[in-house]
Amino acid sequence: MKGKKAGIKSKRRCIGVRTSPIHGRGVFALRPIPKGTRIIEYKGKLITDKEADRRFGPLQENSSHTMLFSVDGGLVIDATRGGNSARWINHSCAPNCEIEEEDHRVFIEARRDIKPGEELAYDYNLPTGERHPKKAKRDHACLCGARPCRGTMLGEEEEED
To answer: Which of 57, 70, 93, 116 is the most buried (most CB within 10 A)?
Structure first.
């Protein structure tokens, strides 16, 4: 058994990371992914909101790039430590994936059938806990290019009128 350990089944990868037309790196389907498929878990070190602010607050102040995922209970998954390919999934206002949270774990699932070569994306819906001034919208501009693009990765429900 060349390249495999005895007793371990080989699972064909369904995703791969490469350069994205949306932003930096992206995650792409390598084979068809049916609607409802749990594709990957967003992995990283689980830390408190307070620890995330301590570690990244000054760095994130002037950057829209982050590998932190807030989960219930005032916790954050820090994908800069122990993260996997899921950290490269980009935002889209017309996403083909959605997030499912279970017990402080985050899973990315297919919202619809995804074709090989298609980039995976979910709506970041970034929370700020306040209304969004124009500067915040510019700092978190959306580059998805989708027809229904709202122009920002910030949460839809928090936008100013």
So the answer is: 93
